[in-house]
Write a sequence for this structure.
């Protein structure tokens, strides 16, 4: 038996089915990623490459099989499994949703991510890259508020821009090398910079990240779970394939781990806090890619895997709160554990995983990147990552569960999350704990061969990590007791988006006003100049003036003609 | 786990009982102390020069978080704006809230809200 269809096709067919079939049958859709994922897993060695001839160009839509290097094959397979798993969990989470737009967009979105993972050339990648952008925007639009509509449009513009840069990069790469095959690029040429920026936008590099924190909190509860899983991880996957070992990425990654946590501490919208901590987690992955050793790259991939699950889990718990309460503002939440105990427990599992608590999934993957950082000799950057690790625990590990479910009693008594949401959160929690307690499950799938196997559970690592986490928590308790902890306030915090949401429109309007003034001035002067001219009426007394004016004009025309002909 | 889900008004929910919270905090402090003590007993592998400082990770974790919060608080002075800074339409989202079924138990919320949460609460 062999697997000889494009891996994304079942998703697209399922989306078609979801669009036309009765809403009642949407339960069947859950089977699509499950069955497809299992089929790919069983036929991992016998995947058939597929390419489409398009005029003179060949699109490699399934770049698998013998001619692909073992690492790339394992890497794309791991991400494919991950996306199937994520889509499966997301679909369960979204089972109660009767809105076709979300289901169709979610399936197309997941399918595009799978397609991008198996793409063999940059043009195919470009197609899926843009599909990712367009389909995911509908997960934001589907919230159907004015704010989500505008955020969705901003999101779409930036995402499409990334795709356009990718296309320009691909074309100039083709001009230079004569090939569009995806492989190691490395920084240097113009094309490589275009690729880096295109990937960097989707991977939320600093100053290119604001689409993420802008759009994700505006998405629907289920939409945000979908969104957190795919776009950024496809970018990480592409960076790992094209820029491994690129020194610049270490510094970018370190910056990405640190700056979002400050915002996360003062942000009120808890899904926005998660969006910031998503950037922080991506920072660890980008660092790993930048270091480029087998340990670092494996750590990156493992962390991407874990991040999809635990960040998805956290987005699911906050989505459940949003679904029940209607908002996720920390300032107006609290005490929800009384009526949403299961969601609370799942949230704590997610929080423990993201903060890399021993026995939870983050612990076994984040530390690989940290260890690789030391091996590579980046001691001060390692300190930054350590700072970020402590900060993650602070804002995602404690703040999210504390302000949503404990803290002061808000008086809200929402119902427990719907059963399908609980099941989805349960599966994600189970995977978090499974990977944390039995890391071999994940390690055996990692693409790069390491000289010596990485052992996460040694005494030093466990002890130091516990010290770090417990004393971060102690700082939280102490700051709270002293009343130094910044209260949750209804507010907006200025970020890079300020440039295009405030400065650009304001300057644009200002320039338009100045231009208008100039235009009005010019018209005024022209009118008065015209008025100053002798009036050309066919009256007896005006004849002399008219004649003079016509002669003057005739002279000017002749003079200009004479002047021009000199140069002809 | 053993959290009360039904609206049993007489029973104080687990985390609203100041005694329980006090015990949790005590256990928490005890673990913190144990972890520092363990640092002197167990021989840690040292990879980076910083790690030679006794209880480096504990100190770093604590200091990092305090610094983080202090800087973030200061950042608020620069970056914080009104909720409706970008677009007034934000209040459409706010108006959505009443459509979701929320059971407001105002009386319970107020009399339980004071005793325990006074120390943990962020709103001073």
């Amino acid at each position: 038996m062999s697997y000889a269809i494009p891996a994304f096709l079942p998703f697209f067919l399922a989306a078609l089915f979801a669009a036309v079939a009765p809403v009642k049958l949407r339960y069947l859709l859950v089977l699509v990623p499950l069955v497809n994922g299992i089929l790919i897993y069983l036929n991992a060695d016998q995947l058939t490459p597929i390419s489409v001839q398009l005029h003179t160009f060949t699109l490699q839509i399934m770049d698998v099989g013998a001619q692909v290097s073992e690492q790339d094959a394992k890497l794309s397979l791991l991400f494919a499994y991950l996306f199937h798993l994520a889509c499966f969990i997301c679909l369960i989470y979204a089972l109660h949703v009767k809105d076709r737009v979300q289901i169709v967009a979610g399936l197309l979105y997941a399918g595009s991510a799978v397609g991008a993972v198996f793409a063999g050339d940059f043009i195919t990648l470009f197609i899926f890259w843009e599909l990712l952008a367009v389909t995911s925007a509908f997960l934001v639009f589907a919230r159907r508020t004015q704010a989500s509509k505008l955020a969705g449009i901003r999101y779409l513009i930036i995402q499409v821009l990334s795709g356009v840069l990718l296309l320009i990069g691909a074309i100039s790469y083709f001009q230079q090398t004569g090939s569009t095959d995806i492989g190691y690029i490395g920084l240097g040429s113009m094309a490589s910079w275009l690729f880096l920026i295109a990937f960097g936008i989707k991977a939320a590099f600093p100053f290119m990240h604001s689409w993420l924190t802008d759009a994700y909190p505006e998405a629907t509860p289920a939409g945000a779970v979908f969104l957190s899983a795919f776009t950024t991880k496809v970018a990480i996957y592409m960076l790992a394939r094209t820029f491994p070992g690129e020194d610049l990425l270490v510094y970018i990654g370190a910056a990405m781990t640190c700056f979002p946590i400050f915002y996360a501490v003062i942000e009120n919208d808890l899904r926005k806090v998660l969006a910031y901590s998503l950037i922080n987690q991506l920072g660890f992955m980008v660092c790993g890619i930048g270091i480029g050793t087998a340990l670092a790259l494996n750590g990156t991939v493992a962390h991407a895997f874990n991040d999809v699950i635990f960040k998805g889990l956290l987005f699911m718990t906050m989505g459940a709160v949003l679904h029940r309460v209607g908002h996720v503002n920390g300032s107006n939440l609290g005490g929800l554990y009384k009526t949403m105990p299961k969601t609370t427990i799942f949230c704590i599992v997610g929080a423990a995983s993201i903060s890399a608590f021993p026995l939870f999934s983050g612990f076994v993957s984040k530390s690989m990147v940290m260890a690789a950082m030391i091996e590579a000799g980046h001691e001060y950057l390692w300190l930054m990552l350590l700072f970020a690790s402590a900060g993650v625990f602070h804002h995602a590990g404690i703040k999210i569960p504390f302000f949503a479910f404990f803290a002061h009693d808000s008086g809200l008594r929402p119902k427990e999350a719907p059963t399908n949401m609980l099941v989805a959160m349960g599966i994600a929690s189970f995977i978090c704990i499974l990977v944390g307690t039995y890391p071999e499950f994940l390690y055996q799938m990692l693409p790069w061969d390491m000289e010596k196997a990485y052992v996460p559970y040694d005494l030093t690592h466990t002890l130091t990590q516990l010290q770090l986490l417990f004393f971060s928590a102690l700082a939280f308790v102490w700051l709270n007791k002293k009343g130094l902890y910044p209260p949750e306030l209804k507010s907006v915090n200025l970020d890079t988006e300020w440039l295009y949401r405030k400065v650009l429109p304001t300057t644009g309007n200002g320039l338009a006003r100045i231009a208008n003034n100039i235009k009005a001035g010019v018209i005024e002067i022209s009118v008065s100049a015209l008025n100053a001219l002798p009036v050309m009426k066919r009256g007896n007394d005006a004849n002399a003036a008219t004649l003079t004016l016509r002669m003057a004009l005739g002279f000017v025309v002749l003079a200009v003609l004479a002047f021009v002909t000199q140069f002809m | 786990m053993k959290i009360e889900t039904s609206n049993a008004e007489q029973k104080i929910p687990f985390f609203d009982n100041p005694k329980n919270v006090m015990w949790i905090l005590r256990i928490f402090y005890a673990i913190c102390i144990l972890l520092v003590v363990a640092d002197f007993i167990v021989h840690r592998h040292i990879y980076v020069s910083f790690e030679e400082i006794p209880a480096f990770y504990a100190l770093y974790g604590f200091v990092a978080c305090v610094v983080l919060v202090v800087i973030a608080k200061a950042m608020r002075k620069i970056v914080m704006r009104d909720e409706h800074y970008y677009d007034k339409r934000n209040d459409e989202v706010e108006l959505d809230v009443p459509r979701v079924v929320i059971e407001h138990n105002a009386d319970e919320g107020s009399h339980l809200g004071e005793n325990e949460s006074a120390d943990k609460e962020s709103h001073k």
User: Anything to note?
Assistant: Residues 1-9, 94-124 of chain B have pLDDT under 50 and may be disordered. Chain B has five helices and one strand.
